Model the fold of this input.
Amino acid sequence: MQTDAKQLPFFVYGTLMPGQPNFAVWGNDVTRLETAVLPNSLLYDLGQYPMLVETGAGKVTGFLVHIHANAYQSLLTRLDWLERYDSNHPDQSLYHRLPRMVMIQGNRDIMAWVYVGNAAYVAGLEPIAGGDWAAYLAAQPQGPPWWAALMDE
Done:
């Protein structure tokens, strides 16, 4: 069951993480960041961004982002737009925003919103080993991605 009224933190695993190009979307609304892991999922490289899909194996590493309550609805709207999620037409969406249990430090579980991709988009692709987008980008032989220089300005 999905309830937009519930102000869950967000589990992010790609361009919305610190050091990534869309981290600026959060503005000054972040109250706390925690490293986190989503079990039973795999991560795929779609070029400009990753896509997480749920599976019976694997895990994806990311961050749990807690935000100010007064900015919640506005930020939720921006994130849904960025992730191309339409709650009125979820079957036509690139990602679905779903509540999932993620593990944070100390092996504690916490419910968070996760943008889960449509598995049809990753058909035939190999998952990112280790499920860590930042580590995957850092290990690329061609060097940092195109947006890294913009982040240093």
The chain has a mean pLDDT of 88. The chain has one domain: 10-151. Residues 10-151 form a domain with the Hypothetical upf0131 protein ytfp fold (CATH 3.10.490.10). The longest helix spans residues 72-82.
